[in-house]
Structures are given as C-alpha cells and as structure tokens.
Amino acid sequence: MLFNSLSFFIFLPLVFILYWLVFSKKNQLQNFFVLIASYVFYGLWDWRFLFLILASTIVDFFVGQFIHASDSTTKRKTWLWISVLFNIGLLGYFKYYNFFISSWVDFMYLFGYDPKSTWTLQIILPVGISFYTFQTMSYSLDIYYKRLTPTKDFISFATFVSFFPQLVAGPIERASNLLSQITSKRVFKYTQCTEGLKLILWGLFKKVVIADSIAPIVDDIFLNYNDYSASTLILGVSLFSFQVYGDFSGYSDIAIGTAKLFGIELMSNFKFPTFSRNVAEYWQRWHISLSTWFRHYVYIPLGGSRVSKLTSVRNIVIIFLISGFWHGANWTFIAWGAFHAILYIPVFLMGRNRIYMNTVVAQNRWYPNLTEIAQILLTFSLVTFSRIFFRSPSITDAFGFIKQIYTHFSYESYHHPMGYRMIDYFVLLGLFILYEYRIRRDERSPFKFKSKAVRFAMYVIIVFGMLLFYDDQIDRSFIYFQF
C-alpha cells in the first residue's frame, strides 16, 4: 500500500478512528490492533512475505531473551550470531544471491570459462526487507551490548518490528526509542495530531509535486544519455538529486507524521541535506537513521576514530562500501559508496567532519555568506556527481554517462518528453529551495507561521499544487522501496 494512494487514504482514517475510539482502553489491545493493521498494510503488496517479517520477529524476540539470560560471553555471542546470520541470510538470499552468482560468472568469463548453468533464482525482492532486518538486528545488538533489557511482551515487540508508518522505508528505529513508546500507554494529543497532519501534507507535496513531476525528465535523460550533450546530462543528474531527496524525505515526513497520529514520535531522517557545507555534514543530514545504525553497530565496534588515523580511514572505507552495498545488489552502488568514502576521508583527515554538527547554514542570519554559498554549491555538485552511479543501471552506463559529459561538452536546450515547459520546473524548484531554506532550522515544522491566514494560504497552495501536478500515468512508487 503506497502512502500516495487512494487505498491508504481510506486505510489511515479507519485505523486512526478504531485505534483511539475502540482499542485505546488497554495498551496491549491497542498494540495488537496496530500489529494487525501493519500486517494488512504490508500484506497488500504480497502476503507471502509476511512470513519473513514474522520469522525475523520470532528469531530476534527469543534471541534477545537468550542473550539476556546467558551467563557467559560465549553463549551471548552464539545467540547474537544466530540473529545476525539469520537476518543477513534473509538479505543475502532475496537481495544478493543473484548478484553474487552473476558476478562469479562474469569473473569466470575473464579466464575463458563459460559456466553451463548460472544457478540464478527467479525471486522478487520483498519490500522493506533491508529496513526491518536492520531494525530487528539492532534490538539483539543492543541487548548484547547491555544497552537494553529485552521485553517479554511478544505483541509489543512484533508491533515494533512491523509498525506500518516506517516498516517499508524507515526511519530505521532502535528499540530504546520506538519499543519503549509502544510498551507505554499513549494519550491522544490534539497538537501532536495536527503536527502529524502537517508533516504528511508536506511529505506528499515533496513526493507528488517535486519527485514525481521530475521523474519523467530524469528517466528520459538517463535512458537516452548517448543522445544528449553535457548540459542536458548535468541537468538530468541534478534533477535526480532533487527527485531522490523529494521522494525519500517525503516518505520519511509522511512516516513521521503518520506515527504522530498514533502518539508515536519517530526519529528525524532528513535535516535539509541540500544546505550541507561539506560531505560530512551531508551524511549527518541525509538518511540519518541508516548513518546512525552503521555508526553504532559497525563503525564504533571497529574502533571508530579512537584508533590510529590509518585504521580510522579503513573503518570509513568499510562503512561507505557496506552502505553502498546495502542500497542494492549492483556494482554501481558499491562504486557510489567508494566515491563517498573518497570525498569523506579528506574532510576527516583535516578534522572538519564534526564542525557543523550543531549548526545550520547562516545560523543567526537571514542569508548565507559567500563562503557558505561556495561550500554548499561544491558539496551539492560532488554529491550530485556521485548519483550518476546511484541512478545508472550498470557500471558501463555510469561511465558512459560520465564520458558523454566530457566528450560532448556543449549546451543545448532540453525539451520535456511530454511537451511541458521546462521553465515551470525551474521556477518550482527555485521556490522549493527558497522555502526549505526558510524552514531549515526545524525539519518538523514545515508550516511555522505566526499568521493563521498565511498558514491557510500555504495549505491551499500545497493542495492545489498536488492536484495540478498529480499524474496517474507516472510510476508513483517510492525509490527506496527497491532497497
């Protein structure tokens, strides 16, 4: 079920009403209802994959109990490895099996050997598997590191794993935040619900008006990159940066807003990464839940930055390669991760990887200075260049795209594949950037105006924009569903 579908706009009010008016007397009953609603929400994609969520839930629920009860380090490690291997095994089978087989076959071809059988499988990737497996693993890891005491309430734990607002594409929550709220009694708060509705509206705007309207342009340019000059290719990858941001941050806003309707506060997943002043700040603002997961469960256990510079650099490379591979079973994502490691390492070595952690651009000013503008443009350009690998279907296409830029370095006007005026999209993106700059200090308050009239006008503009740009001929699924 898509957030931007008619079925969800029927599903959500119905679940909301029943949640607060029928099942709110007992926390256990409320959680059971949310669990059933979440399974219905996910099962409408493919009910067979519900067994994978259930299996991951059962394994990690009992592993958590066994780790906590074990009195020896060996037993604790054994149970932890059961959790890790089971969840990684699910990912490996459904997401990476064919990739490894195909890579092995390509490797054999280099030596003149032609395998008669490739042993590939005709399987589809379960939606959200990369997200919920990481979420359940974090629970076992937190218990192993004694940061968390396991719950004995299976229903609450199953609700934590499958909570429908963030089940399919995050944020990837830790039990210390989400499970603790699920096991506690929730009280209806009008202000929390209105905040949630505003975030849902803003997320839908970013998805429908920004991401979906740009998608046909990006698809056309990347599909036919050999036919276009450098100016058009640069336009295409730049627009993809806004598409993927509008798509994924839009999903996160809708997820966070929807959770608020049920009295749950999810972590922020995006904090205006477009205005980052270096690559380190970008990763502090982009897909925060995944970056946080890798920092807590991979980077720090490897030694983090407490070890020698050389070992720290090694750890950074490992993190970015794994992050790239997490995004998809394709060498393009590994190249994308490696490119970001190359961008990040100089910032780290110069000691500038943490200087912007608690500030925003033009912190106490209306406008950024020239240095900040240059930093933002440089960071955006580097991150955008990396997305050539992220968006291309293969390494060959990625390098072909780059080669086309450097060998056909000329300007030509681009015509929309559906005949629309391109100037309208440039104006739209310009206004969007200016508006996000205005609200850059608070990602949870997209409509923070003192005047009620101004707020109402913004709501009207947002709704009108969605009606104007909505196109049922466009693929409306979210980009990160494929990850």
Short description:
With 483 residues, this protein is mainly α.
Relevant terms:
66% helix; 2 domains; mainly alpha; 0% strand; 483 residues
Topology:
Elements: H1 6-21, H2 27-43, H3 50-69, H4 73-110, H5 129-144, H6 154-162, H7 164-167, H8 178-182, H9 190-223, H10 230-261, H11 279-285, H12 288-299, H13 309-327, H14 331-349, H15 370-391, H16 395-407, H17 422-438, H18 452-469
Helix pairs in contact: 1-2, 2-6, 3-4, 3-5, 3-6, 4-5, 9-10, 9-18, 10-15, 10-16, 12-13, 13-14, 14-15
Overview of the molecule:
The chain has helices at residues 6-21, 27-43, 50-69, 73-110, 129-144, 154-162, 164-167, 178-182, 190-223, 230-261, 279-285, 288-299, 309-327, 331-349, 370-391, 395-407, 422-438, 452-469. It is globular and about 65 Å long. With 483 residues, it is mainly α. Helix 9 (190-223) runs antiparallel to helix 10 (230-261) and helix 10 packs across helix 15 (370-391). The mean pLDDT is 92. It has two domains: 13-111 and 123-187, no CATH class; 191-277 and 356-482, no CATH class.
What pattern of helices and strands is seen along the backbone? Answer: HHHHHHHHHHHHHHHHHH
Number of individual domains = 2
Helix percent band: 55-70%
The major pleated sheet works out as: none
**Cα-based radius of gyration, to the nearest Å:** 23 Å
- Strand proportion, as a percent range, falls in under 5%
- The number of helices is 18
Query: Structural class, judged by helices and strands?
Result: mainly alpha
Overall pLDDT metric = 92
Tell the overall outline: globular
